[in-house]
Amino acid sequence: MLQEEEFRMQQIIVIGGGVVGLTSAWWLAQAGYRVTVLERAAQVGSGASYGNGGQLSYRYVSPLADQGVPLKALQWMFQETGPLHFRPEADLRQYRWLLSFLAHCRADVNRKTTAKLLELGELSRQAMKQLEVTVPLEDFDWRDAGKLVVYRSRDLFQKAAGKAGAGEIWSAAECAAREPALAAAEPLLAGGIYNSGEAVADCHAFCLALAARLREHPNFQGFVQGEARRLLADKRGITGVELDTGLLQADSYVLAAGIQSRSLSDSVGIKLPLYPLKGYSLTAPIRADDVAPEISVTDFERKVLYARIGDKLRVAAMVDMVGEDLRHDAKRVDGLTRQVRETMPRAADYSQLSVWAGLRPATPSSAPIIGATPYRNLWLNVGHGPLGFTFACGSASLLAGAMRGEAPPFSLDGLTLRN
Questions:
Q1: Coiled-coil segments, which residues (predicted)?
Q2: Contact 256, 14 (CB under 8 A)
Q3: Domain 62-105+143-199+275-362 sits in which CATH superfamily?
Q4: What is the phi-psi region of residue 168: left when phi exceeds 0, alpha when psi lies from -120 to 50, beta otherwise?
Q5: CA 19 to CA 256: how far, in whole Å?
C-alpha cells in the first residue's frame, strides 16, 4: 500500500464528467490524490447523466440478460412501441456484444450477477449517505419515494411475488389506492410489488452540485474542457491523453467517459465489452391539480419508469441498439407518449413534454467494470448501463480503494476487467 505522502504527490486525470466520473473524482480527492477532470462538454453531466430516469434503485437491480430474454427480444423487435429496437450495424463490436449477451442469458448467471449488483447497490446507498454531509439532498431533489413494480401479466406477477424477499405484495386495487396516479391503469394491472428505501433524484442537478463541491476541495486541480481523441502508451504505461487542443499528462488515469471509453481504450489495445444502449426520457411539468406519482413506479412488461423529480414528471424507457446514434426516432417517442398518457393520464402537463435521448454504456452482463487494467496507471469505472446514478457512489469508493491497494468490502468477482 502506498504511503500517505505518495498519495498527495500523485496527479490523477479522470476522463469523463458525468455522474460516474465526478463521483470518482470526489472519492479520489478524498483519498488524497490531486485530481483533474477532463470533460468534452461545456457543462458536466451533459451526456448519459443528463435526462436519465432518476431512480436510485439500490435493491431492484435486475440484469437485462436473463433466461427467456432472447425470445422476448425477438417479439419486442417487431413491436413499434416495444421496449427493444434493433438496427444492424457494420460494426463487429455490436455482434461480439450480442453473442456475449446471449451467453449471459441463463438463470444461474443472472442470479450470480444480481447478487453482486445487490452488494454494489447497498454499498452505493451507504456511500450516498456519507456524501449527504457535503452535497445536501435538497440540492438535487432527492426523495425517499419507495419503488413499486407493477405487472400486467398475472403469471409474471405471481412468479415475481413468489420469490423470497420480493417485498410487499399489492393487488391492482391496492396499487391504485396507495398510488392514485395509477387509477386509470388499475383494470390493466395484475398487481405490484413495493419496496421502501428506494429513492428518486435529479442526476444532472447532482452532477452540478458535486462539481461545485469539487471546485472547493483542496486536492482538486480543476476541470479541463476538451475532446479526448486517444490515449498514448509505452512500456511504462499510459503517457498521456491526446486532446483536440494538445496533450494532457498525469501520473495515473481513470477512464469514466461513458461509451467514449470504448474507443479510448481501443487506442491502447484494450477491448472493453461495452455497447451504447440508447434510451429515451420524457419530462413534463406537474401542475397544481395533476395527480403525479409520489412512489417511483416501474411498468415491468413495458419497461417504463415513472418518477416525480421536484415539480416535474420524468418517464424513462426503451433500449435501442442503433449504435452511437442520438437522433430522436419520432415513432418511438410517439409510441412512448401514448403509453404514458394511457397509464397515467392526469400525472403532468403532457402538452409541455420535452424529449431526451442518451447512450447508456452497458456490458453484456449488466455489471460495471471497476479497477485495474493491464497498464499499471490506467484504471476503469465504466459500463454501468441504466444504473449509473444508482451505482456511482459505490463504484467510486471501490475504485479509490483499489487504487490505494485496500482490500474491497466484498469480492469483486464479476466487476473487474477480464483479459
A1: none
A2: yes
A3: D-Amino Acid Oxidase, subunit A, domain 2 (3.30.9.10)
A4: beta
A5: 9
Is 0.90 topped by the overall pTM? yes
Q: Dig out the grid coordinates for 182 from the structure.
A: 395509477
CA pair distance 152, 166, nearest whole angstrom: 17
Q: Give the H/E segment covering residue 8.
A: helix 4-9
End-to-end CA distance of the chain: 24
Grid cell, residue 245, equals 487542443
Question: Cα–Cα distance between 27 and 32 in angstroms, integer?
Answer: 9
- DSSP reduced 3-state for 168: strand
Nearest one of 3, 53, 27 to 370, comparing CA atoms: 27
Cell readout for 184 is: 386509470
Q: Who's near 352: CB < 8 A, 6+ residues apart?
A: 284, 285
Q: Determine the 3-state secondary structure of 182 from DSSP.
A: helix
Question: Which residues make beta-bridge pairs with 246?
Answer: 243
Residue tagged 419515494 (cell numbers): 145
Residue found by looking up cell 425477438 in the block: 74
The candidate with the shortest Cα–Cα distance to 259, out of 49, 9, 2, is: 49
Provide the residue-wise pLDDT of the chain in tens; the chain has 419 residues.
455 555 557 999 999 999 999 999 999 999 999 999 999 999 999 999 999 999 998 988 889 988 888 888 888 877 777 888 999 999 999 999 999 999 999 999 999 999 999 999 999 999 999 999 999 999 999 999 999 999 999 999 999 999 878 899 999 999 999 999 999 999 999 999 999 989 999 999 999 999 999 999 999 999 999 999 999 999 989 999 999 889 999 999 999 999 999 999 999 999 999 999 999 999 999 999 999 999 999 999 999 999 999 999 999 999 999 999 999 999 999 999 999 999 999 999 999 999 999 999 999 999 999 999 999 999 999 999 999 999 999 999 999 999 999 999 999 999 999 85
Instruction: Of 184, 200, 350, give the one whose Cα is nearest residue 282.
Output: 350
| Ordered DSSP codes for 365-398 | TS--EEEE-SSTTEEEEE-BGGGHHHHHHHHHHH
Q: What is the DSSP letter of 183?
A: G
Q: Residue 388: how many CB atoms within 10 A of its CB?
A: 28
CA distance 289 to 280: 26
Sheet holding 11-15, edge to edge: 220-225, 34-39, 11-15, 252-255, 378-382, 369-372
Q: Report residue 317 as a C-alpha cell.
A: 424507457
